[in-house]
């Protein structure tokens, strides 16, 4: 009996590429309809393969897929955006890899993920085409991604005394709340500033198109970035290899 093949056409963004066999690739792909899926691209490593462009890291393509059993196979692809601007800047390229690894971790397998896909596409575009500062993209993307994944920190006011403007604000990265420094100390508190807190509120509450439309002095931006990293580590309970590489590139 022939194995049934189910054909589907989706927009897919390549998050990770793994070489396999002699000329194939296994692609970790994020789609709006199917969420995170694994796709076999047969012959994608061969010279002049018609699947080569769409099988690159960060390639955004219209993909024609066949599913046989538990596996998706890439039958055809029409690349729509390859984010070429990342390839000429190692800092932006390494940060893009970190954003992709974060997204891959929180995205559910075979679970629709339109908001996650839109966020990552916009983040890559901000880095590659708009040339937004990586130091601003990184914390903004991290906090918005975690909020979409169900880990949104409470930043409307002090979680202890209720003050709308917390005095010497800190973020408890384990409990996911902001409070005044004097209102308690958990050992997991990361200092913010009034400006960094205002930026955090903008990131969490502002429209998608304005996500990176903020500016901070360098010291405040460092506080926001440190809080984003610590919050991600505490909530997701893991380290990310690409983050270490990004930091090494900055040195």
Instruction: Report the end-to-end length measured between terminal Cα atoms.
Output: 59 Å
**Amount of beta strand:** 15-25%
Strand order of the largest sheet: 1-2-3-5-4
Question: How many strands?
Answer: 8
Helix content: 25-40%
- Helix-and-strand structural type: alpha+beta
Low-confidence sequence ranges: none
Q: Assign an overall shape.
A: elongated
Q: Please outline the major beta sheet.
A: 5 strands, mixed, barrel
**Mean pLDDT level:** 94
How many H/I helical runs?
6
Report Rg.
Answer: 20 Å
Give the H and E element order.
Answer: EEEEEHHHEEEHHH
List keywords for this structure.
251 residues, alpha+beta, three-stranded antiparallel β-sheet, 6 helices, 24% strand
Ordered list of secondary-structure elements with their pairings:
Layout: E1 6-20, E2 24-31, E3 35-41, E4 60-68, E5 71-81, H1 90-106, H2 114-128, H3 134-148, E6 169-172, E7 177-180, E8 189-191, H4 194-205, H5 218-236, H6 241-250
Helix pairs in contact: 1-2, 1-3, 1-6, 2-3, 3-5, 4-5
Structure commentary:
- The chain is an alpha+beta fold.
- Strands 1-2-3-5-4 form a 5-stranded mixed barrel. Strands 7-6-8 form a 3-stranded antiparallel beta sheet, with helices on one face.
- A hairpin with a 3-residue loop joins strand 2 and strand 3.
- The chain is elongated and about 60 Å long.
Concise description?
The protein has 6 helices and 8 strands; from the N terminus they run βββββαααβββααα. The chain is an alpha+beta fold and 251 residues long.
